[in-house]
Amino acid sequence: MTTSADTVFQSRSDGISAEGVRDQYADGKAAKVWEIFIGDKKSRTENYRNFLVEKLREHGVRRILDVACGTGVDSIMLLEEGFEVVSIDASDKMLKYALKERWERRKESSFDNWVIEEANWLTLYDDIKHLLHGGFDAVICLGNSFAHLLDNFGDQREQIQAIRNFEKCVKPGGLLLIDHRNYDNIMTTGATPAKCIYYNSSHTADIKTSVLYIASKPALVTLDYQISTGKGSEVSEFRLSYYPHKLQVFEEILRTIFRGTPSHELYGDFKPLDRVKQPAFYIHVVQKASV
């Protein structure tokens, strides 16, 4: 008997912003609280900013596709650093914050030219063909965003399809930067580190973790976030669900799709793996083979 994870957990908000990709922020609550948690868009950690900008400049990146822009926090930083950015997300509730920022800063040429679209990872290449112009120097999918795409068929076919679309959007010699939480450790310990390595948020967060197994296989990690809004003792809560990517399997998927890649670098919390014992996040930097 096949059991759907959704019969056990109410894992996603109602609403599908793009066919085939569920929008976990569709009710607007999680998007609003997440925006509060991030707070000042300049508050990202120094390790994160330096890692991302230096890695992109090291490879001569100029034009970037942010496939999980959310409220726009990473895209905004990259625009301010002088990169050309095209930003997409599956959640219109998240994108409204990016669109608002673009409007408020429209007198700046980089923001006036900022392309923001709602898009579906499963049909991404066809959806944005008009924006490719030979491919992007880099495609980024950061902040544990890719794990939002669940395994609806039990064989990761949609996740593989999405990464194939990412690869097709990268020009020869370009980069894919993609990350995920250390789900191997989460499944071992049953706990998720609350500390955010991406943002210096002043809003404390607690994360309650649940792991769902189907046929003895981990199928879903549900995180209940508790975030202080800064209004007295008021705490906001929301739930997000993720697919628990195993590092070894994820690496193999990337190797298969980026066949012949000259470089696949792996980092833990933006540091070489020999400098961090048990990272909260793994960051993959994959270079597409040149023609």
User: Helical region count?
Assistant: 10
Distance between the termini: 47 Å
Q: Compute the CA-based radius of gyration.
A: 18 Å
* Mean of all residue-level pLDDT scores: 85
Sheet having the most strands: 8 strands, mixed
The overall strand count is: 11
Strand order of the largest sheet: 3-2-1-4-5-11-9-10
Q: Which helices and strands occur, and which strands form pairs?
A:
Layout: H1 29-38, H2 46-58, E1 63-66, H3 73-80, E2 84-89, H4 92-104, H5 109-112, E3 115-118, H6 124-127, H7 129-132, E4 136-141, H8 157-169, E5 170-181, H9 183-189, E6 205-214, E7 217-228, E8 235-242, H10 247-257, E9 263-268, E10 271-272, E11 281-287
Parallel strand pairs: 1-2, 1-4, 2-3, 4-5
Antiparallel strand pairs: 5-11, 6-7, 7-8, 9-10, 9-11
Q: In words, what does this structure look like?
A:
By secondary structure, the protein is of the alpha/beta class. Helices cover 30% and strands 26% of the residues. The chain has ten helices and eleven strands. The strands form two sheets. Strands 3-2-1-4-5-11-9-10 form an eight-stranded mixed sheet, with helices on both faces. It is globular and about 45 Å long. The N terminus is likely disordered.
In a nutshell, what does this entry contain?
With 291 residues, the protein is of the alpha/beta class. The chain is 30% helix and 26% strand.
Key phrases:
eight-stranded mixed β-sheet; three-stranded antiparallel β-sheet; disordered N terminus
